[in-house]
User: What shape does this take?
Amino acid sequence: MQAAPDAPAPPTTTEKLAAWGVHLFTASGAVVAVLALAAMAREDFSSAAVWMLWAFVIDSLDGTLARAARVAEVLPGFDGRRLDDMVDFLNYVVVAVVFLLATGKLVSFWWVAPPLLASAYGFSQVDAKTEDNFFLGWPSYWNVVAIYAWVLDVGATATTAWVALFSVLVFVPLKYIYPSQSPVLKRETIAASAVWVAVLAIACAWPDSALSPWLAWGSLLFPVWYSGVSLVYGGLDRPGRA
Assistant: This one.
């Protein structure tokens, strides 16, 4: 008679503290969101943009930290994915749309509806992330749209047109790279995104500098590269396609 396998050892106190620490790090993104909104209320859009980028950094790191700390195994009663989705919707969608409105980048107040409703749909999809670790549909990077509209001083009509386009793309089943879990060019994507955040943060922190527009325009190389790689390696999702 074959002996039953030993039961896994219960998580240690250190492992639990590490897991809770990761969840706290993820939740800190909500605090950053409020700081960004408070900066907008003061019309300090430079600080608001930097806080929005800091939220992007938190979101870029927390998944890797969660896997390293095995949070799902150590704290099975706490849903880290749900926490992450709530904080991401707040930062990537709500804060970003308020930023677009506060900076006068929408032709009408009613244009807040398309990105909010489209992203509510996108975040709620069971297959929002594919089995091969791509985002399915445009991943609601409204913070990126909002920051570029402000730092590059894009007009309200042009910005609204981009908002309309990306709202539609949320529903189009194109596959976009999921940087921290990308099955292709993962290291290159992470390295490029780190440089991109740093360059764009400098442009936003000193918007009146003569160097700021050059840095902002130069930083667009990463979104263009990201989109190109996503189209080449992701493309249109088709059932049964490897």
Residues 13-236 form one domain.
